[in-house]
């Protein structure tokens, strides 16, 4: 998640006697801005999310707006960005959640909409607290020592998003919630690999020290490659092959959980996961040259994946495949 820290939704006052639930007019006004935020800054997920039922899509887009806006607040450090101001806003959100989300939030109408979603879908406050803690760690980024530390960070900034979304999608089983968390982690691992170059340009390295050392690399080695702009060497390629293999493992684990969702929510989540997984393939096609270019999926790829997902969903509904493991074979074919 990366974009503009100053994105704000239009303010909307509330007169005495009005319900705490946002009105239809309020939703229409704000959802237009939220849809624009998603379409502009989350193109892959935006493409997949259009296949949600209308009511579910509205809730998903609103929840995305919260996570995206706060993430951008930390990530995008343009002119006027102040670490202390951002830290104070994160603290204010923590306090707002701790007080039961009953007062005006640090950003409105974002808080009003989020409070409504939290009450409607009973999303635990701890999920948002963990997310905010992950964002705070990005204010003073410290390179992970090992994968356990990286996994914890990925859970905080992305696994939490998957879990929160699972409540909106009507998930009740622990197995499905775990799959949602793992899909968020798979996507964050993909983000880290895709954005290695841009992160290096601002002094951030998320890959664990122990794994860099294992492949004969280091933060200094990565920085030299980035500054030279001559492409990856063999040590870097070996490191990337290992990272991609692990990210694919998390996709395999999580995408099997798609079939635990209600039928009308399976397709968009499976499509989002497959499209994000395709970014790994694009990295491989570029010979792992993520230090000079940003891998992305084309519209042709998106349309092709949409067709595959429609077919997989149809096979499942018609009983022609009977288990997620069997569908995973179809994925690879």
UniProtKB/TrEMBL annotation:
Pathway: Carotenoid biosynthesis. It holds the Pfam family SQS_PSY. Residues 1-21 are annotated as: Disordered. PROSITE patterns: SQUALEN_PHYTOEN_SYN_1, SQUALEN_PHYTOEN_SYN_2. Keywords: Transferase. One of its GO terms (biological process) is carotenoid biosynthetic process. One of its GO terms (molecular function) is geranylgeranyl diphosphate synthase activity. Gene3D superfamilies: Farnesyl Diphosphate Synthase. PANTHER family: BIFUNCTIONAL LYCOPENE CYCLASE/PHYTOENE SYNTHASE (PTHR31480). This is Phytoene/squalene synthase family protein.
